[in-house]
Write a structure and sequence with these properties.
homodimer, 244 residues, Jelly Rolls, 2 domains, 8 helices, 41% helix, DNA-binding
Chain lengths: 244, 244
DNA sequence: CAAATTGCATAACACACGTTATGGACAATG
DNA sequence: CATTGTCCATAACGTGTGTTATGCAATTTG
């Protein structure tokens, strides 16, 4: 895995070894780039999905909002992830997509997408696999929300984010840039801001994690993984990937 | 929508009008049928996905189990639903599939699946749409688990099941066969059995629902929908489908 | 046909987590 | 450069939901 490659290529490289042709195709597919400042709704709930794109840079999240204002964050979207993939079959999205940091998306035209299956069947498979992975992450998210304690939920989510970042080379140690607010964590994990705060304080006091600046350090990944029963196989990685 | 048709055909008919050719293809695609008695694991967590199939009859659910024995039910699988769709790209499943009632599955061969895109592009699209729907239901499930009260969760799930059953013609009134135990509801909704019991008792006392035999009656669907902010558009149906 | 298990029910008690209130550091804004 | 808002922090208190115990009818099992 070379430095300087786009996150998509690093992402696909995890699935299989890319041929030069496929590599070129992936580099060429990126249509016009769309940039966005932080805290902008890029796709709105109940509105048409405007494009298919690959995240080149930045963090985002998908969320649903209830009439009374309560918000549920469904998933975090990191560099190398795809958005809007279901545009062709479900033109109107049931959830919104919001940027957390400044972001850069590489859009893909509808014609490129529909030509994919015929021209690059292995890449089409890889995309299918990525969308299967998205479902698998939602399954794990349901497990977190339904059957984990607050403490476990926090630890589990932090480990998932760390693992996904390492998977595309966005992170190479146990410290990484962490732009999520406590409110976002609360809305992702089905908890109150107060309680997220308590859990983060506890984990810090126990020296399992620490914050400096806007950076998070996982000080004892094994203890965290045991605490949360974290097993990254659902991310399409082998069991001990997190402990390398 | 005619009686006696297989649930798959009724399901696909909701998406678009099937040609005679497509109808024949769908009827022919059903390979060997697999039947199962209640409470059997048909697919096991961490084991290869043995086949792709359409549910012809019966209720099932997908679930994950934690090391300490706690269980999270991810989704309920009803007649007309597809299972094992990701087999080709993710051979090992991250969750199990269990039958609730006696079930009948119509399996589809791998060659049929891979020929689908070329031979029946509209059916392939419909399947893609069904898998997008599965993701949308997981999103709604996350919303239930993370940001609804126990009372709302119960009402919302009952309405979802009712709507899905009506969608394939399994149910035509507000009363339907309901094989879920309180334990299953608890494990689906992230609650304790005791609390599910409390909520069901309350809803019964308020005459919003009632049970006779193993049949559930929704006595006031509008009140339930308002209570739970239920809006079936995420099921690919128009907003007021539930109130027809 | 016993025996064991499952599903449902009621009650008392416990606690994990939510709510509300308040303040301070910092960043964004006019 | 005030001003406003955001994010984080600490504290006291309230409650929705979990836990444990127990019984009984219906079902499954040997």
């Amino acid at each position: 895995m070379e430095a300087g490659e786009s996150p998509v290529i690093r992402r696909f490289s995890r699935i299989f070894t890319l041929t030069d042709d496929e590599r070129r195709w992936l580099e060429a597919v990126a249509g016009p780039h769309r940039t966005s400042s932080p805290r902008r709704d890029i796709i709105q709930q109940g509105r048409p999905i405007p494009f298919v794109a690959v995240v080149q840079d930045g963090w985002l999240f998908r969320y649903k909002r209830r009439e009374d204002g309560r918000r549920q964050i469904l998933s975090f979207v990191l560099p190398g992830d795809l958005v809007g993939l279901h545009r062709r079959v479900v033109p109107v999205g049931g959830h919104a997509l919001q940027s957390i940091t400044p972001t850069r998306l590489a859009t893909m035209s509808d014609t490129q997408i529909s030509a994919l299956a015929a021209e690059q069947p292995r890449l089409a498979d890889a995309m299918f696999r990525l969308s299967a992975l998205e479902l698998a992450m939602m399954h794990e998210h349901a497990l977190r929300l339904g059957r984990m304690s607050a403490r476990e939920r926090v630890a589990h989510l932090l480990l998932e984010l760390w693992t996904r970042l390492r998977c595309t080379g966005e992170c190479t140690s146990t410290r990484f840039f962490f732009p999520l607010t406590q409110e976002m964590l609360a809305d992702a994990l089905g908890l109150s801001v107060m309680h997220i705060h308590r859990m983060l304080r506890d984990l810090q006091n126990e020296e399992l994690i620490s914050f400096e600046d806007r950076r998070l350090t996982l000080r004892d990944t094994e203890a965290l993984a045991e605490l949360a029963e974290f097993d990254p196989t659902y991310l399409g990685l082998r069991r001990n990937f997190a402990l390398e």
